[in-house]
Amino acid sequence: MLTVAQALANTRSNTLRRWHSGPDTGTRGTDPADASNRIFDGYADIRPTYDGPRFAAATPVFAMGSCFAREIEHALSARGGNVISIDDRIERPEFEDAGGKVRTTFFHRYTPTAMAQEFRWPFGRQDGWSEDALIFAAAAGNDVDLNYAAVAADNTPEAVALRRGVAGALVRKLVDARIIIVTLGLTEGWVHLPTGLAVNAMSPRMLKARPEEFALSQIDYPTVIASLQGILDLIEAEHADGDFQLFVTVSPVPFQSTFSREDIVEANLTSKSTLRAAAVAFVREHERVHYFPSYELVTYTSPDLAWRPDRVHVNPGMVKHIMNRFIDTVYEPAAFG
After folding, report:
1. What are the domain boundaries of the chain?
2. Helix, strand, coil abundance in the chain, percent, nearest 5
3. Over 90: is that where the pLDDT of 35 sits?
């Protein structure tokens, strides 16, 4: 709780505290600091609160999360950032789809529980994990790996094992990162009941073949908090020198389909709201953890600017706007020229 003095001090110092200062409900105010003048008309102007250190362009960055994490990686790398979670070792046939294209979708992590699991297992810290955890035999001598998105054409046991090895080595690179970004995606996730492990990417064939082995988890607020705590604990235990800042953000990308009885629009909002509320609460308890409003920047931007025609994926210009705001917030002035 805040004292009266603290609350009033915040009010005096926060120039962005007001949503609307117009004379009535039919008139928009003229103060450019009003939220009503910073949203929907073009790109949203939301200014994160950040009191941590500022970074140079060469600072190592590690990102993990849903597809929006890949957008962050590529946009920051294109600006000259040192993104160490991008690895050219995936430029090989075992990561190619049927059309011969390397798919970074393989590295997507969708739920907080699956993400925490992906941080832990490469360091030998995930309970219930083994070399073949979440790997199941399929037809024609192929395997199904439920810990990774099924995007590759080659699913022989050798290819599956190779991809896991590359993924584990990639995660272990986080020990040298000073900026670590986790992008939370959704709260509906499958659990493998015999091991208790989180399924990152479910195969419909496995649900049909082994229905007794899986259950759907509607991941709640305490579980999101616990997952974030597990991620932070792992980083603090394994980091090379302890000199890092953790940034938590919520992906604006909606999930494609819900297993609940809700309209997908409601289900998606429940998911994003749970993730955001838990993330902000977690950030308030940890000095080196920060929230960055990617979800809010997209949500409060003019839809034509925010979304591609599918209204699922974020426009490149929107990603650029988000990364410009991130760079302005956490990097040194003129870090990228």
Report:
1. 54-330
2. 40, 15, 45
3. yes
Are 221 and 282 within 8 A, CB to CB?
Answer: no
Could you tell me the pLDDT band of residue 87, with boundaries at 50, 70 and 90?
confident
pLDDT in tens, 213-264: 999 999 999 999 999 999 999 999 999 999 999 999 999 999 889 999 999 9
Distance CA 253, CA 299 (A): 10
Q: Where are the alpha helices (DSSP H) in 240-293?
A: 264-284
Give yes or no for a contact between 164 and 145, defined as CB atoms under 8 angstroms apart: yes
What are the tokens at 240?
A: 């090379």
**pLDDT of res. 101:** 83
Amino acid letter at 102? V
The string over 272-306, giving b where at least 16 C-beta atoms fall within 10 Å of a residue's C-beta and e elsewhere, is bebbbebbeebbeeeebbbbbbbbbbbbbbeeebb
pTM over 0.85: yes
Question: In 3D, which of 234, 226, 191, 230 has the Cα closest to residue 212?
Answer: 191
What gap in Å lies between CA 77 and CA 55, rounded to an integer? Answer: 15
Collapsing DSSP to helix, strand or coil, 161 comes out as helix
Confidence of residue 50 (pLDDT cuts 50, 70, 90): very high
Task: Report the alpha-carbon distance of residue 274 to residue 221 in Å, rounded.
Answer: 6
CATH architecture of the region 54-330: 3-Layer(aba) Sandwich (3.40)
Please say if the pLDDT value at position 181 is more than 90: yes
Instruction: Return the SS3 of 287.
Output: coil
- Whole-angstrom CA distances from 79 to 26, 57, 324, 335 are 42, 9, 9, 10
Count Cα neighbours of 309 within 13 Å in the Cβ-side half-sphere.
0
